[in-house]
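Dear Dr. L.,

I hope this message finds you well. Following up on our conversation about the binding site, I have prepared a predicted three-dimensional model of the protein together with iron/sulfur cluster. For your records, I am including the exact sequence and ligand specification that went into the calculation, followed by the structure tokens. Please feel free to forward this to your student if that is useful.
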Amino acid sequence: MEDYLLLKAALVTEGIRSDPASVAEVGTRYKEQNHGLFGWDFENHTEQKLPDDFTLPDGTVVQYRKNSRSPYHVVPEDGRLHLHHNEQRICEVKWLRRPRYYTEKTTKGNDMIKIGQLGGQDCLFFCYQNYCSHFAKKQQCAFCNLVSTSDVYNSVMRRKDPVEVGEVVKAAWAEGDTNHVNLTGGCISLKREIEIVSEILSSIREHTGFDSVPGTLLPSPAKGEAIQKFYETGIGSLCFAMEVWDKKYYEAICPGKAAGTSHDEFVENIKKAVEVFGEGNVYTIFVLGLEPKENFLAGVNAISELGANVIPFVWSPNPGSKLYGHRAPFAEWYAQTNREAAEIVREHKVPAGTRNHCYLCDGNSLLHDALREKGVV
Ligand code: SF4
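The resulting structure of the complex is given below.
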């Protein structure tokens, strides 16, 4: 049987290209990319609608990352889509259905698609403010292309109205596929961010009837009393974007962020968040591929000991980021590293927290697939 974890790792590190006929219905029948925050493709594609993600035969969700030079390409054959590696046919792939709400408008007349986008198969994504102050001082994280993506595509509203967010959640949930929300914002003051998040969560709860909203909130690093305040908004789990575990790598790769939140502060607040949200309901995000495997696995071990989960995104050296033109480690490295990380998480018995995040939520992490191999999620 095909090693789908390794195949996914290859697809997100080498990118993919598609025969034009295979993407003809992307944006109508199938879900297209909408660039709600970052761009993950190896090259921009303003004139071309491309899939956001797709599935492999075992249900693995894979993020679509355009690379015109990739050996992986999709061609339509016999009414199906087939993935090839150079001349060799590998397996069937399926683009994901385009949600019906993508063509609907809010009561204020705005396009719902410009407010919230479906990530993966079942996670509704909102960026409540596409802004990061680190760019103005050239202190942005070296892998980040937030500003460039927003300038190149300009495809979403930069600020979201809480009532409209609630309307989008209601419309998306009514279709039956959505199971989680994922909320994030730029770097704004923690006080203001708590106010914004409270208004948004009140609106979501009002529009859906949820007491506790299944999903994740990724604010600017939550600290001290803010953690309890975020909990009181009614979101199910809290995320911390540490990005890189090793202190020195972190300071070099994320200068602006490290100046505001140290490695030790992250750890201290993740610990506190687990006390407030409960084991398994706190996530730590890493960009995997920027530091040696041993450093990353030491981070997975330390975070697991705290009772928190890890989401390691596969680094894409995307256009607009300082590291554009570099390349990520090879697929074998990612598959092996994630399998070792999954074993660490399993040994620590960290609750999977699938009410808030699951392997269908995004095609960018391999760890939830490696955990699925072990029967953990
Ligand atoms: S904190 Fe870093 S990753 Fe987040 S938006 Fe700013 S530069 Fe990008």
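In brief: Residues 132, 134, 140-141, 144, 146, 187, 254, 257 surround iron/sulfur cluster (CB under 6 Å).

With kind regards,
A. P.
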